[in-house]
TrEMBL record:
Entry-linked CDD domains: DNA_BRE_C (cd00397)
A single GO BP: DNA recombination
Superkingdom: Bacteria
Name of this chain's protein: Site-specific recombinase, phage integrase family
InterPro entries per the UniProt record, alphabetical: CB, DNA_brk_join_enz, Integrase-like_cat_sf, Integrase_catalytic, Integrase_recombinase_N, Tyrosine_recombinase_XerCD
Pfam families xref list: Phage_integrase
UniProt similarity note: Belongs to the 'phage' integrase family.
UniProt keywords, alphabetically: DNA recombination, DNA-binding
GO MF, any single term: DNA binding
Organism of origin: Blautia obeum ATCC 29174
First and last residue of the signal peptide: none
Amino acid sequence: MQIEEKKSRLENLFFNDTIDDETVANIEKMLTRKKVEKLHKYKILYNEKRDAWYTANPQDYNKRIQRKTLGELLDALKPYYIESTSTYLQDIFEEWLDYKRTITDSPNTICAHRKHWKRFFDGTDFFQIPLQEIKVSDINSWANQLIKKYNLSSHAWQTIKTIPKQMFEYAKDHGYIATNPFPELRVTVKFRQVSKPTSETQVYNTDEYHKIIEDLWKSYDKKHEPRFLSIVCNFLMGLRAGELCALRWQDLDMKKWEISIVQEMVHMDATELSNPYYDVYKASGQIVILPGQKGRKGVYVLLDHTKTHTERVIPVVHKAQEIFKLLRANAPDAKPDDFIFGYGSKYLNLRSINSMLEYACKHISTDVKRSHKLRKTYASRLNAAGLPLDQIRACLGHSNTTTTLGYIYTPLTPEESLSIMEKAFAN
């Protein structure tokens, strides 16, 4: 078949929509890989034990390049043999973000990345440098200037650094660059120092604890809505707010008096959640959009796991047992999958918890401490009572005790602290 005839047939297939843009791109990729394979002078081998393909680095025979598939290996070799038009980090952000969706089940993570991208990186000079021209010195200069410009703490830097770090890794894995210079980054400027907050702002002390519980009971006695007792219970269980909202009667064992923490309610961006990628999660029940939220920018959803993707069982102390008995007696027809703290057709949500806390704090004339401070109060009271740190960690659902230590403050009033100090030096 003559070349012109072949060309004409291909053009007809394209114009008749028999071949779409994606197919054309796949053909181009296949032809590029064949070209790279011809140009590469070293053997390409398969390692059965590692289930991976490997070959010698074209610039250094003593170094290997290894990838899971032959195609990925040829893509990694491409920069060594084929000059391409300049590609910038700016160009591959959306491509990387699409890839990121496939390796995380949290739409909120994607939203956070997009938010940080717009604030710190989008359109800046560093992200306009051709990828193959970026040197370690460029990265060092950019990173240190960014930290100074925004006066970043170490924690803030580690959070936003995830984006360029993973974009460079993606660029290398997909053949945009031959080597990744990002791991050689050195931060030499000082981070903003962050002091640990005071106990007064982080936990409810003994007086506040008793007063706010009394106020919440008064609200319950007046309105008979379980939501008020949800906060009282959480002073006694220390759950994440989303875990508290997601509690169902089937999670509570009223014989052993244990409660299983297996899922969580979270607030998600509706636009991100509408991405077709999440359809499979919604269809399988891994993500359940709660009713009554049509048209909202942010929606409450139930996830089939907790924040750390681990289930835990915590003991229910006597005071909490009495609350659960009361709620159960008031809802004799409740089904196993009904929410414990639901009322009528309504369900407890994160905003409701904080609204109730704000209302109660005003009643007792104390500064507002929001829902996460309940967990810190729970941890701090257990610590003050002498419960071993690792047991507190297990109850909170932390993966390590370092995180748990960050939750522990002084839950005592100044008078209680002084009394203990006096006793310590009494003899």
